[in-house]
Each structure stands twice: as C-alpha cells, then as structure tokens.
Amino acid sequence: MEFRVLGTVSLVAECGEPLPLGPAKRRSLLAMLLLRPNAEVTVDRLTEALWDEEPPTHSRTVVQGHVSRLRTLLDEHRAAAHGVELATRGRAYVLRLPDADALVDARRFEELLRLARTRHEPGEAVALLREALGLWQGPAFAGTVGGGVLEAAAHELEELRLVAVEELAGAHGRLGEHGTAAAVLRAEAVAHPLREPLIAALMLALGRAGRQSEALDWFHRTRRMLADQLGVDPGAVLTDAYTALLRADPFRGDAPTATAVPTAPATVSAVDVPQTLPRRPAGFTGRRLELAALDRATAGAPGPIALITGSAGVGKTALALHWAHRHGADFPGGRLFADLGGYSSTPAPDTTVVLRGFLLALGVPARAMPETSEAMGARYRALTTGRRMLVVLDNARGSEHIRPLLPGGEDSVTIVTSRDRLGGLVASDAARPVPLAELPAAQSIALLAAVLGEDTVAAEPEAAAHLAGLCDGLPLALRVAAARLATRPHPGALAALAGELADEQARLDLLNVEDTGVAAALGLTVQHLPGPARRLFRQLGLHNGTALDTRTAATLADCPLGRAATALDQLAATHLVMESGPGSYAVHDLVRLYARSLASEPDPDGLLHLLDH
C-alpha cells in the first residue's frame, strides 16, 4: 500500500492500481492527514481546508462522511495488515502510518534527496536523484480543492523538486556530462523562465558543453522577460554566469546549486577574444548580392560602418549574423553583439547597460567598472583601439543610440541593422547603407524548400510560387507559412494554404504563429511613428492599389499636400512604403492589409475623397 501526493492525490493498493478515492474534497481530506501522519488533525482544520469560504452548516457531517468512506476503502484493501489505521480522537482524526517515509511518496522523495547530498561520488548522487525525481507524476496535491494549506505545501514541494533538478544537473556536470546536465535543466527553464538560478545553471552547462551562443541566447531572452514582466534587471547569479560565458570560461562560474563543485579552470582564456554573437541563423538562403554589398561596405575605409536597413521581417538580423559567422576568422580581436531593442515589445536597454556588457566581455571586472556612461564609453573605446573587432548593433532606432557604442581605432568593423534609414549616421559617421528588399520569387521558393524540404516544394511547384507571392517575398511571412505547413505535412498542403492566404481578410491572421507574426512586427514599427504619419498609415488601407503618390495620400488623409509629403517621407524612412520616384511610392499587400486592419470601421469620407480625386 502506498499514498501518493506527488501528482494526483491517490491511494495505491498492493497490486499497483490506484483505488477509487472519490471527489476532490475526499482527496483534500486525505492530503491534510498525510501532511501530518501519526498526528491529530482537528475537524476545524479539515473544514478550513475543504471550504475556502464560509462552510455549510452541515460541514461536520460532510467531513464525517468522507472519513467513513476512507475507512471503508482502507478496510476493503487490508490496510490494517500494513499497520495503517484512520482513527478518531475526540474532535480530531489521525492517520496512523507505521513507516511514513516508506508509505508516502513525498516523504520518500525528501529522504532520497537527503541521501544524495551525503554521497561524494557523483554517479551515486545521480542514481539517487533520478529515483527521487521519478516519483513525481505531476504537480503536488493535484486533484484536490486547493486552499491555503495545501497550496503552501505544494509550493514547498515544488521548490524542493527544482532544487533536486539543479542538483542532478550539478552531479552530471561533475561527471563531465555537460550536455546531459543542460538537457536536465532545459525543460525546467522553459517551465520556469524567471527562475534566475535555474537559467544561470543552464547557461553554464551549455557553455561547458561548447554551446556558448545558445547559452547567451538564454541570458538575453531572460533579461528581456525580466524587464518586460517585472521591470527589473538580471540579478547577480545570472550576471555572474553571463560574465563567465563572455570570457569563454564557464568553468569559473559555479553552477548555483546546493552541491555545485567547481571544475578545474579552462586552459583557454578568451578575455582577449570576446565572442557574444547569437548562433548562426538556421535555414538562411539566397542574398548573394546583399552579402557582396556587405563585403564592400565593410572594406577599405578606416573603421567602416555598414548599415543594413529594411522593413520589418525582411531578414536584417539574419543577414548580419550570417555574414558575421562567415567572416569570423577575419576578426581575431573578437565579436560583440547587442540588441538595442529599437523596435521591440520590451523596453530598449539603456546605453550604460550595453556598454557594461561590452566591458565585461572585454575583461573589465565588475568591481572595476566605471561609474558613468561617459567613463564606460571612454574605457570601451580605449580597449577596442588597435584591435581587429566586429561589433554588431542590432535593431537600432536612432543614430544617437549607436554613436556611443562605436568601437575606437580604425581596425574594427561595425554592422548596424535598423528599420529606419538612419540618415544621421550616414551623414555624421559615413555609414554605408546596405538596403535589404524582399526576396525575389526564386529565393522565396528556395527559403520554403530550406525549411520544408526540397521534395515537399518540388511536389507542388505552382502552389509554392503562388504562396511565395502571397507572402510578398518577406522572409518572416515565408517562415511563418512554412511553420504552419510543417504541422500538417500532407499532399496538397501548399496549395491548400495558398488558397487560404488568397483571402485578404484572413491573410494576416494566417501569417501569425504563437508570438511571431507579420502583424506584430509591423505593429512595432507603426507604434514608433509620429502622430501624423501614424494617422496617414491607417488611411492607406482604403487604397487598393500598389502605387501611391503624394496627392492621393493628401486626399486620403484630408490634409495639406506638404503635411502628406512629410508623413510619407517618415513612412518611407521606416520602410512601410517604398519610394519609387519623386513623390511616388509603392505599398506592399501585407502592409496595406495591416493598415486596413487598424481601422475600427470603414471611413466613408475618406473613400469619397479618394473617389473624387
């Protein structure tokens, strides 16, 4: 006989089958008794646990009824033979268990965890911890009515479970099994994305397994989530792990677990060669001309700055990272990366935060960090002078955010990506623009093939071409469409999706999957527009054509010609419309559909103005 609370509260007979306990209140009553085996639990205490609000007048009778049915169930399955008895003591009940550590899974879990901590051999600790974690079959005290007492007990057990996971990863790490340690931690990190010690342990395990870029991705993801949800910066444990990774020495960062034992320091120190690039983008294809343009923009001039510009979802970051990884050997001084969050759903990091990260990567200890942003900038430029380095500044919104982050000297290369044209950076720092347009048809189809497989696309060539056209050659839209197709791999899937996308009213909804989509990406651009440009953009949804001139825009917005020209220039600067000639612009279908979606209802006056024009 066994009592289980690590999952749904249950009573398991000798045959291994759970017995029919009945409703949630009866499970709750049993759970309360199991919290204090061999001790009296009063009827009042049980009543509080079974009813969150005012209990009914007959609550004592209900409690007695549940106790009676539990006794019957125990008697039917020879509980007395195991020394198990549910006894009455005045206005209290006691569940007698001769060996609670053996009969209750939570007690056995705690005992195995205690034993694992006494083992000096990591292999023995791994075996005990795996046995302990194997007892869990779901959230603790599931199937009950909840309540303060049981919820607090469940939270305490869940904390112990996470500690056991961290200690298991630490034991694998001491065995040199860093990939296994990372696998143990990863699932929990996904489930508990704000638990900083857990994320730090995962980062260090990934770094020790040679997966540094993936480890750094976890840090940046967690930093953004902490800022977005809690409005705070990463704590010391996460920052220390990040610093160790930046120095390419994760063995110096102790995993934040109760049993962590530092491994011998790595023999290679990368303080002189910081590497903070995210991993190489998967499925990158095409862009031969743009890569050649980037080669030219980063060559020749002293301290060159290449400025990759384009619309939301066109693949600016992917191009920059692909080029950076391909040319890694050209930068013996190291490669630095920062997401400036210019067009993001989370607050953009302050320049001081970015400079601090760069200085940590360059070997400046936290205790010796300059105090002001100006002093940090001076130290950064001094440390980068004379080095051949690559600095990638991603997702910038204004030139003023970039200038303090430009490296010193004439040997380094800077790549900036932005949805804005950043004319100020071109004028003041001789940045060389590398405009990025939508993919042509052949490259769009090649991208679908890279994600879905060449056989899938070759089986439906006409549908693939139609689908690529409906996605406007936008890599983000193509990848979202491919993600939808990957979940329904059957003959004719491309044609079916193309048919669905042909419906303009459904297209944007279909080009959205989880937290990624065309509408969300365009929305982040629109929300940063000045008011007049934002209002004009909404009116563009009334215009069904792909060509637009200044007079048509002024008519749509019912505004003076000069104001319409200024707003159109601001839309063109962020690549929401494309300048095709003096006073002439082109509007892609997906952009026009998004503009139309922003209008709560059709504007009859705007339509009449357009028809009159």
Describe the structure.
Helices cover 52% and strands 9% of the residues. Mean pLDDT is 82; it is low at 254-271. Helix 9 packs parallel to helix 11 (236-246) and helix 10 packs antiparallel against helix 11. Strand 1 and strand 2 (10-12) form a beta hairpin. By secondary structure, the chain is an alpha/beta fold.
Q: Mean pLDDT score, rounded?
A: 82
Order of the strands making up the biggest sheet: 7-8-9-6-10
- Sheet having the most strands: 5 strands, parallel
The outline comes out as globular
Question: End-to-end distance, in Å?
Answer: 85 Å
Say how many strands there are: 15
Which class of secondary structure composition applies to the elements? alpha/beta
Low-confidence stretches: 254-271
Strand content: 5-15%
- Could you estimate the helical fraction of the residues in percent? 40-55%
**Rg estimate, integer Å:** 31 Å
The DSSP helix count reads 29
